[in-house]
Design goal:
Layout: E1 9-12, E2 26-35, E3 45-54, E4 57-58, E5 66-70, H1 81-84, E6 99-101, E7 109-121, E8 123-128, E9 142-148, E10 165-171
Antiparallel strand pairs: 1-8, 2-7, 2-9, 3-4, 3-6, 3-8, 5-7, 9-10
């Protein structure tokens, strides 16, 4: 696996470095996202959607396929689960369709997805935080991605992940100032 610096891709396996055995796809039960900074908002951070792909196809996930956790959430309308639910809209207003925090941890945060069964993927695609194309400065910016085959739910930012493997830290792109899928 290697970290890509262009739009939307948090990482992609190209078979030439890191990642799973031989640089191939990763199989994980849990994926952890340690968010260090936002795109400028000092107290709020969010992510609209995170998709997992294998060979270019999006893994179809709904709330019955995983459990999601975060260090904290802004309110009951901005819980972490919708971020991983591929059936939800990636455009329009953010209420009920993205995770958002500003209530407790502020910008530094940990977002976790625990799949009900092991998932194999070779790419993670991010649609960063926005509200109908506005407030893009609240999107996650510097993020470390860690995966493990263990069920893991410690939402303490930076805590060691049991049997975890880091995919490295990367800068996620700021969402464009338009109500489109990034």
């Amino acid at each position: 696996m290697h970290v890509l610096q262009h739009r939307r891709k948090a990482f992609r396996s190209d078979g030439s470095s890191g990642g799973g055995p031989g640089g191939g796809p990763i199989t994980a039960r849990t994926v952890v996202f340690d968010i260090a900074t936002s795109w400028g908002d000092a107290s709020l951070v969010g992510v609209r959607s995170i998709e997992f792909k294998l060979n270019g196809a999006t893994l179809s996930l709904t709330s019955s396929d995983f459990t999601a956790y975060a260090t904290s959430s802004f309110s009951g309308d901005f819980l972490p689960g919708p971020t991983f639910d591929t059936s939800l809209s990636k455009t329009g207003g953010p209420t009920g369709t993205q995770w958002f925090d500003g209530a407790g941890a502020g910008v530094i945060n940990r977002l976790i997805v625990v799949f009900n069964a092991d998932q194999t993927f070779d790419e993670i695609v991010v649609n960063n935080s926005h509200a109908s194309g506005f407030s893009t400065n609240r999107g996650a910016r510097n993020v470390e991605i860690i995966h493990t085959l263990d069920v893991y739910s410690d939402t303490t930012y930076g805590a060691a992940v049991t049997n975890g493997t880091s995919l490295g830290s990367t800068e996620w792109p700021q969402h464009v100032a338009s109500d489109v899928v990034d």
